[in-house]
Amino acid sequence: MSRRLRRKVAKKGKEKFVLPSYPEIENDDGGLGFENKGFANWTSLPDDTVIQLFSCLNYRDRSNLASTCRTWRLLGAAPCLWNSLDLRAHKCDAAAAASLAPRGLHLQKLRFRGQETADAIIHLQARGLREVSGDYCRKINDATLSVIAARHEQLESLQLGPDFCEKITSDAIKAIAVCCPKLNKLRLSGVKDVHGDAIDALAKHCRNLTDLGFMDCLKVEESALGNISSLHFLSVAGTTNLKWGLISHIWGKLPNLIGLDVSRTDITPNAVSRLFSTSHSLKVFCALNCLALEQDVTFFATHNNNNNINNKGKLLLAQFSDIFKGVASLFADTSKNKRDIFFEWRNGKKKEKNLDMVMTWLEWALSHTLLRIAESNPQGLDTFWLKQGAALLLTLMQSSQEDVQEKAATALATFVVIDDENASIDCGRAEAVMRDGGIRLLLNLAKSWREGLQSEAAKAIANLSVNANVAKAVADEGGINILSSLARSMNRSVAEEAAGGLWNLSVGEEHKGAIAEAGGIKSLVDLIFKWSAGGDGVLERAAGALANLAADDKCSMEVALAGGVHALVMLARNCKFEGVQEQAARALANLAAHGDSNSNNAAVGQEVGALEALVQLTKSPHDGVRQEAAGALWNLSFDDRNREAIAAAGGVEALDCANGPNAFVDKAMIEIAGMRWLGPAAYVQVALAQSCSNASPGLQERAAGALWGLSVSEANSIAIGREGGVAPLIALARSDAEDVHETAAGALWNLAFNPGNALRIVEEGGVPALVHLCASSVSKMARFMAALALAYMFDGRMDEFALIGTSSESTSKSVSLDGARRMALKHIEAFILTFSDPPSFSAAAASSAPAALAQVTESARIHEAGHLRCSGAEIGRFVAMLRNPSSILKSCAAFALLQFSIPGGRHAVHHATLLQSVGAARVLRGAAAAASAPIEAKIFARIVLRNLEYHQMEHSI
């Protein structure tokens, strides 16, 4: 073989880069390097083809490919490949960033995720960086952002969001202004308070600043914004506490202001009219989801005519207006199809600079606002989504701006979901997406080489596929092959969403064979091995899809052949996440259900550790896990060899072969029937409590405190109640000492968890004592725990227990229980309302800004409650209480979970883990969105969700 040298020029946009000379391999016969067997020699690929291949890879794959040979190493270092860098797909710490530094000399555009990557940015040594965009920014603080600004003086664009930048203050904004004088675009979400001096610094130092966004902030200094005369585009979408009377006078004088976005704010019709009359440059005014405008009939009628253009030539975009028609009015040629206006603009040959600027900004503003609206899912928007919202999202998904595409895909995945807990979607919205060609568009995006788009498109496909008609359309368009391919991705987020799509598609019997033929089963099994550690989401989805597929006889054999039995047993043995355990057990149960037609039953039984793992899962505190594990053992017991092995593993106690998996009974009832004996120490403490009603407060406190500590164990709790410990605790609850109140209330709270004890407390006259504590104790903790004890007593479980007595006893108890219930609920409600500040709650209900929820949290917080530690069963009971028909108990449960999950609490992380393990997020989202729920329950549920997100981010970043 001979070698020759040549130099090539790679083009990227308007720039040209001369590549280093390198050897290119050529066959001796002068051919193009094809082997005799018909395979292409990869070393003979043209340089521009190799560079094109490199450009379609993330930075890690690009580096790996470049390490294969010297030629490709030189090509992989081409500056045109390193103009832009997306670090979101993989964890990037300081060491990883330093390894990329030699390639970062020409880096101009950077996207990152999370604080660790933000801290690592300076190690890239990309002094010429022009654009920085980041998400998952909750933990990024002033110091990190200031260092980024100081090291990148050429920065022209900085965007952080759409999640909230809770730790960033005005100090960081001032540092950005001083260090980055060339800045022309700044967009920040969720900053608590933007002071006037920070905005003045931007006006003073950033003379080219044309695009500014302070979205979802608690407060922004309105008058200072009027000093940035260079502004062309301004967004305050979702920001609260704005003084519209002042704004209408000051912002109207901005000489260059073209576009203004006030969506999701409380702007008034008068303020809009004044801005329209005072601003001579304003062309586009976005005001989506502004209730004051939508509820004003006169304003609606005035601005819903003439293509949304008023007599001053200004375009108003609102939910009641035809947005496509309004945008089309910006163009001179009005004959175009209004629904295709964005497409026509993107592909038009004639470009007008000012109009391009407006349309580019408008795409971003609409995508951001529609995503926020989809996330909050306010009532009354069905007509908007069906008539134009879905079509807008599909249009925005075709944008040339990657962040706009991703936001639109995320919004599309979100707005169709109406009940996350029960995996139900709005069929009308889903089919509207399908009618407008959304399925093919999503599948095309899923085939993109950009992993961010792959993930969001796969998520949307997965959610939409809950609808059977959409699922059929996805399959018909080749979606199963695409999702099976994405499930092999090395990006966990992409693989997780693809597995979720296969999970939903595998519900349909008609799709199971197609998934197997596309290699989806092998992809799902491989996912379990690939992400066996630290990938609960992807593991649950993969196991869930395999469980559905294993219900089919032919597919169940494919699962076994692909190594699925070993993978699922590994999950059942090692994974601690409830959702994964349940789906793994369900998959094993379905695999074992084909004993007559294949050998999977024997294969599961013979897998090392399988039976022991399933027996252990029958002892899980989670009903779903116990049920599926029992079902698996029940199916396996039809094999004689398995039957003996199950008995040897201790499964006889878990599985009664005569009654099947439904033989499980409540753990508390088992312990009552078993009559476990109270230990000697507890005997002493009960006796002490009985004898110290007239003792010193110190002795009373210790006696009640000892019973409180002992009652943490359910066995002890039952025994304490049986041995007469309830009456003395009620007496201690009536003590005049505040400390005794707390310990007695704590002990009664623990005891009330058991329905038998709860009934004893009622019969011993404990309800009036707890009501008195709840209403009048000086100790917030005593009042709190008394309210929780009352909630336990009247959430319905005690009623069932009370029916065990004779019919006459049941009747008398029922009457007394009704009266006690009314008294208890009345005082629980009064207690909760003492933490409800109407203005704060109204502000939190109207805004998605974190500061509004933080204000409610601070006023509702009981600091001592952070020292309480709850068990999984207790957390599960509060989660179940969120579904209780009583709105008072819903509010109480949400209030309790708020206290237990507030960041900084001693056991907050433990409680957050328990909440995640019982799937609380779904229930909380349902409570937060329930139309009939009181505002207290909704706001407290939203705060708990926010707390869970915080803990999840703490754990993952």
Description:
The protein is of the alpha/beta class. Helices cover 58% and strands 7% of the residues. The chain is built from 52 helices and 18 strands. Strands 5-6-7-8-9-11-13-14-15-16 form a ten-stranded parallel beta sheet, with helices on both faces. A two-stranded antiparallel ribbon has the order 1-4. Strand 6 (109-113), helix 5 (114-120) and strand 7 (131-135) form a beta-alpha-beta unit. Helix 17 packs parallel to helix 19. The protein is globular, with a radius of gyration of 32 Å. The two termini are 51 Å apart. The model is unreliable at 1-36, 651-689 and 806-815 (pLDDT under 50).
List the helices and strands and how they pair.
Blueprint: E1 2-6, E2 9-12, E3 15-18, E4 22-26, H1 47-55, H2 59-66, H3 70-76, E5 84-86, H4 94-100, E6 109-113, H5 114-120, E7 131-135, H6 142-151, E8 157-160, H7 170-179, E9 185-189, E10 193-194, H8 196-205, E11 211-215, E12 219-220, H9 222-225, E13 233-235, H10 244-250, E14 259-261, H11 269-278, E15 284-286, H12 291-294, H13 297-303, E16 315-317, H14 323-328, H15 341-347, H16 353-376, H17 382-396, H18 402-415, E17 417-419, E18 424-425, H19 427-435, H20 438-446, H21 451-464, H22 468-476, H23 479-486, H24 492-505, H25 509-517, H26 520-530, H27 536-550, H28 553-561, H29 564-574, H30 578-591, H31 600-606, H32 610-617, H33 623-636, H34 640-648, H35 667-674, H36 680-691, H37 697-710, H38 714-722, H39 726-733, H40 738-752, H41 755-763, H42 766-776, H43 780-793, H44 797-802, H45 807-833, H46 838-846, H47 850-860, H48 872-881, H49 887-901, H50 908-917, H51 920-929, H52 935-956
Parallel strand pairs: 5-6, 6-7, 7-8, 8-9, 9-11, 10-12, 11-13, 13-14, 14-15, 15-16
Antiparallel strand pairs: 1-4, 2-3, 17-18
Helix pairs in contact: 2-3, 4-5, 6-7, 7-8, 10-11, 16-17, 16-18, 17-18, 17-19, 18-21, 20-21, 21-24, 23-24, 23-26, 24-27, 26-27, 26-29, 27-30, 29-30, 29-32, 30-33, 32-33, 36-37, 36-39, 37-40, 39-40, 39-42, 40-43, 42-43, 42-45, 43-45, 43-49, 45-49, 46-47, 47-52, 48-49, 49-52, 50-52, 51-52
